[in-house]
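User: Fold this; tokens only.

Assistant: Input:
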Amino acid sequence: MNINPLIDWPDLSSGAPPLDSVRTEHFLPAIRDAITKAEKDIRAIRDNPAAATFENTVEALEFARARVSRVANVFNNILAVKNNDELMQAGGEIKSELARFNNGFMTDGLLFSRLKSVHDAQDGLALDNEQKMLLKRTWNAFVRSGALLGDNEKAVLGGLDEQIATRTTDFQNNVVKAMGDYKKVIADEDELAGVPERLKNIYRQAAEEEGLAGKWVIRLVPPPSDLLAHADNRVLRREIYEAMNSIACGGAHDNRKVIMDIARLRHERAQLLGYDSHAAYMLDDRMAKDPETVMKFLARGEQVYRPAAEKQMKEIRDFALASDGLADFKPWDFDYYNRKLQEKTFNLNVEELLPYFELENVLRGLRQHVEKLFNITVTEEKTGKYPVYGPDVRAWEITDKQSGALIGVMYTDYYARPGEKNGGAWMEVFRDHGLVDGVEKPAIVINCCNFDKPTAEQPCLLSLEDVRTVFHEFGHGLHGLLSKGKYPSQNGINVKWDFMELPSQLQENWVLEEEVLRTFAQHWKTGETLPSELMKKAIALENFNAGYDGMRMTFFARLDMAWYTSDPSSVKSVEELEKGIRDKSWLFPADGSIKSTSFDHIFSGGADYAAGYYSYQWAEVLDADIFETFRENGLYDEKTAQKLRDTIYSKGGTVDPGELFVAMKGREPDPDALFRREGLLPAKKPREGKTPSRPQPPQPKI
């Protein structure tokens, strides 16, 4: 008899998922089984002859969906890390089943009438703050899902949601396949002139794994950004740049029609619900509230970033002309000459830093940092207590130092697997903290990245940006783990989307603090700590690209907003829309490259970043402001750290994020805090005896 571990869930420690035994054929039956049982429970809530109460309606709905969430979370996580043709094929049907389930109960008139009676009577109910928030969030979810629509409109909405689920799955599959299909084979090592040996070793090993001994293979996962910064071969740089910037644009996995469909379907859905655009619909439930606020926010950022970015661009162009006589400067030249200019300005070869940022050392320093900041312990579990889905995956237990209690479990999966694993870096949830069958259960989360695997010659070496990514994703994980509300749906990252990046981005601030650097920046061969001179240069280098990076983020945020504020009927093509944004908000003229076709954040899966990409910069303002408090009080000041844990990390979505920020800082956010950190506005003078600001980079001299 074949046992489906997602239906007959094994009794594992902390209720962990059976990741070692799940197979593709298990998902669809398990989803259907979970939906059938959940629908039975929801009908019992709807048909309950007793008067509606918070407990028998709102709270009961929260728990009735737990089984579906448990299976869906395993499916979504495995789809992102172990994708294959069979799973892709099953994925569309599974997501359609989930869309039908959600629409079924969210648009059930009788169920909504019970919810409405509780909602209308809430002022007379003795609800605590968490219960009030759960009622508010549940009510909003029903209304935003069409509960107030007529029967015909509900049917139309259900059809739109199923189509959106299918097309966003198509988008994701096309990106994974297109990235997996790309392969650049190099037969002559001279073509790799300027490329560091560490990269050539990786490309050589990739070739050997494909039976191409004596050659070098370049893939798009992980992104070959370092090659663009080092290859003397301009023809190769151009080819790799164009490949990275035309993913799923043409060929067998073309996403252009998929994108147009997603934009149209979401626009129709928003209008059906009474909104002018998908952006208006999404932002109605965010801190920003409306598209106008977002556009003003982006305009303010561009006002500061553009002059700095244009100055930097001119300096790089002038440098390329002066050093190599390059007058026809192109986008594929930027990383190469930007690196060279940095090296000249700071007398620093960035390759000198990489041997000091070995992944295992970084993880050790990260653990020391979070243990000190949050008064927790992070311990790797190696006994098989928590089954994993592959050899690259590790499990960690997070416990409270004071009580010894288990806070939660985090899986980590740091290496790239082209054609199987999504690109980029992310944190996701297997289970949020909260009540399960009346018992409080800890959170179970996962961190994923796409670093190069170790080779026979060297371990996994990270760039400074990679180090920040590790700290960033762990920050997301801590947000999920440290939340301690009783309802899973409002714990962890279940917050307003433009607040969600705050706990993750905040952790990046500690990376280049000398006290923290010394805990992990050790040479992988010699064990030598990063010399003070190099450390100071690395710190000073931090803001070299602030203007350019700010403009880049602004470009992507404007591209996102353009897709979801435009009337799709007026958009003639993906190329036309993107060219319009490039002409207004980028530093190079349109060159035929297309980012939209691989813009996973806004077109893939649930796409909570759709009309929400600005959230990164929005949250950067918040995290820069909060970190100024640590700079004033001390990097590990106990009182400040405990306040951070008690407000930003432990509350999840149980409290409005604006209130949480004020509880932490004692005031509203200061929008200039980010520009101060980036060196684009003057830094605050530190109080006497407190930690000074990081040194600002000197101005390049050409």
